[in-house]
Amino acid sequence: MPSSSESSFTGRGDQEGAGAAVVEGYAGPADGGAGEAEAAARVRAAGPLSGPLLSTSRPLPFRLPAAAADVDAGDPVQTLRILRDATVEEPLAGLDDARPRLDRARAWTETLPAEERTQVRGEPDVERLDQVQRGALELLLDGLDEHRSLPGLTSLVYGIPKLQAGLPLDASATSELKVVQRELVVLLYELLVGRDTGPRLPTLLLALGPDRPRSLLTLACRSDP
User: Fold this and answer.
1) How many angstroms separate the first and last alpha carbons of the chain?
2) Could you report the per-residue pLDDT of 191-208, keeping only the tens digit for each?
3) For residues 102 and 62, is the Cβ–Cβ distance under 8 A?
């Protein structure tokens, strides 16, 4: 997703409710006078004439509702499942808690050209993998259920090269490990969406749910060495 568009869109979302805070904090003139005209002017300056901006009660990071909107085919059940998976410590009660940011994220994804939308493979890529790549996929598949959260999947995806090097998941990544991490990320993008980039990988895995990645990666992993 183009960073400039996302940055611009997120910047507006981060200002939700800012106008109300400015007005709420206004205490009137220092001399204690009414100051009604000045207060009214501050209200107009703090937001649109139509009234205060709507605020999102659970303002999730923009990339989450955007990724959900990118892959959920407009199905609210899937949208809620994705966002609840991303908020396991305090699950989202309903989609209304993520609005209007969710609606803005969906509107933004709908402006993207078709070739920039995420198209998940319908069939697995069965091209041959080397033994190291096969081992990385097996570690990912083994950990998908246990690490079913955004922090967990982030730790797992970027920790697999560490495990393969005999290091713990929380070990600091050396420059060499960072190269291997990037190679693994590119491989997973190619296996899942058929190109070398896409939404942030842990967010994509969360958005797709456990079954589709497992199906695609298991069959790719079982291709003949």
Assistant:
1) 34
2) 999 888 888 899 889 888
3) no
Nearest to 58 by CA among 25, 16, 29: 16
- Distance (Å, whole) CA 80 – CA 82: 5
Query: In angstroms, rounded to a whole number, what is the distance separating the alpha carbons of residues 72 and 99?
Result: 16
pTM (two decimals): 0.65
CA–CA separation, 60 and 52 (whole Å): 20
Q: How far is CA 113 from CA 8, 102, 106, in A?
A: 18, 20, 14
Q: Are 189 and 195 in contact (CB under 8 A)?
A: yes
Give residue for tokens 């611009």.
8
Note the Cα 223 to chain centre separation in Å: 30
Radius of gyration of the chain (CA): 22
Helix extents (H) in 165-200: 175-193
What are the percentages of helix, strand and coil residues in the chain, rounded to 5? 60, 0, 40
* Chain segment 141-179, per-residue pLDDT in tens: 999 988 888 889 999 999 999 999 999 988 999 999 999
- Residues 6 or more apart whose CB falls under 8 angstroms from that of 116 comprise 1, 2
Residue 96 tokens read as 């209304």
